[in-house]
Structure formats: structure tokens, C-alpha cells
């Protein structure tokens, strides 16, 4: 993938995921819509970051079309220390089931060079088939949705606002939980999120909270620290909220969600290869 592929890759991604969302939508879900221009610009901005940070993990599949090249597929992955993650992956609907996805996945896995791997998987049958055939374990994920019952919020102490000076110990905690620090991804997350950390260095933990009060990435040394951090995020929520990427080794999060009045739903898989499911941990879909 090159910088000048980004607009075409964005359109391919928007069409691919609209088709997948229509296909995999449950009757209770709202009608899927094509990604907005603003969301498209955010997508390009994030892909540019991956391309700058680890370009070897970013690929497009192209085919000749009307005398030019058409982007028909994309696979964007990143190595961080001794860990590989897949950020996004797709093939245009009209080009699926012809082996393009296999070639893309094989190529980004070659870039992983034997590193353990992690990503959040859709339920698309082509995707789950590819992932399992590549040796990934698919762990079903829960999502907790609803409006927080304010009277259920406990008084949470021992937390403080975090900053870039916290990244060294946060990376050490990441290594214990997932085998690698987030490195530059911490800076990327801090630019658009509030960071809350445990004030007790013997019980490390942190959570990034987005503008709508959703926990985007949470890591802790112990489940009780993780629960306090999640309560802090839920306290910041306004209206309907969401806690996602919850796997069964992270039932501490289910217990907090239920106590807050949220309901359990099911959504996709956490895919891992060569490593266990991190816990106590809530992965971020973009930076894992
Ligand atoms: C996942 C994806 C990239 C695979 O691309 P692709 O070019 O179709 O992949 P391939 O043809 O190499 O392989 C897909 C495999 O799944 C099968 N498959 C594809 N679509 C299928 C479907 N709708 N139902 C059942 N099987 C399907 C293919 O037959 C093939 O199996 P085979 O290799 O044993 O023949 C593509 O399906 C896609 O873009 N899906 C929607 C977006 C998505 O969910 N991306 C993953 C996000 S985590």
C-alpha cells in the first residue's frame, strides 16, 4: 500500500463493510449505511498512521481496470515488538471467493515473521474460514449495551488522570498481558482519548475513554483494578453506552456491566494465534 492508494482503499473498505454489514445484520439491528465522508477521512488518517509506522504490514490487491489499477482488496497489519496485529482486511464483494483474500492474509502473515497474532474478527463466513485455516483460535466476544443506572455507580478512588509520562510502565504492563507494549499506539490513543490510570504502582492499570465515555482499551494487573477503571469509564458515559471486546476470561467486565444495568449481547470473535486471550484486558478494535 502506498500513500496514493489510500482514497481508493477507503472506498473499497466502505463498500466491502457495507455489504458485510447487510449480510450479517440481525433483524433488530438498524439498516447499515455507507460510511460517511467524515468517517472516511478518519479511516484514511488511521491507515496513514499504520503506513508510516510499519509500512511492510500494509498491502493492497490491485487489478487492471479501464487502463488503470483498481484496488480490490486490502490487508493492514502491524508489528509491535514481538506481536503482530491485523487492523483491517477485506476484498470487494464482486471479487470475493477467488483466493485474493488468502493471498493478502498469507502476505501479511509473512510480515508477522512468526510473531504471535491478535485481532478482532467479524462473523463473515469467508473471514472466519480464512482465520481458522491460518491457525487462529476464535474466541466469541460479548458486548454490553444500555444506559448506566447512575445509582449503581460506586465511589471509585485510587485513580488519577494519566499522560505520556505513564507510557513506560503501561508498555511493561502490556508486555505482561499481550507480550508487547503498544509503543507508538499509546501516543495515537492519547491524542483522541482521556487516559485514566491507577495511582498505585503496585496495582497497575489504565483505561482510555473516548469522547462518549466508552472504554476503548483497558489493561490491569488484577481484576479488581480493571473493575475500578471500568466503573470510572461508565461514570463518564452519557446516554446509551457500550463495552465491547469482552471474552470469557474477562468476566470481571461482564459483572461490572450487569451491576451497571447493561445487557449482554454477542459480537464477533477475538482471534489469537500463539498467545492466550489477554486478561484482565479489553482490547481496542484498532490497536488491539
Ligand atoms: C474475509 C475476506 C477478506 C476474504 O476474502 P476472499 O477473497 O473472499 O477470500 P478467499 O477467496 O481467499 O477465501 C475465502 C474462503 O472462504 C470461503 N467463503 C468466502 N465467502 C464465503 C461465504 N459468503 N460463505 C461461505 N464461504 C465463503 C471461500 O470459499 C474461501 O474458502 P476456500 O479457500 O476453502 O475456497 C472477504 O470475504 C471479505 O472482505 N469479507 C467482508 C469483510 C470482512 O468481514 N473482513 C474481515 C474483517 S475481520
Automatic annotation (TrEMBL):
Q: Which domain of life is it from?
A: Bacteria
- What sequence ranges are listed for the domain N-acetyltransferase? 15-160
Pfam family for this entry, one: Acetyltransf_1
Which SUPFAM superfamilies is this protein grouped with?
A: Acyl-CoA N-acyltransferases (Nat)
Gene3D superfamilies with a match to the protein in the record: 3.40.630.30
Question: What PROSITE patterns does the database record attribute to this sequence?
Answer: GNAT (PS51186)
Entries under InterPro entries matching the protein: Acyl_CoA_acyltransferase, GNAT_dom
Q: What is this protein called?
A: GNAT family N-acetyltransferase
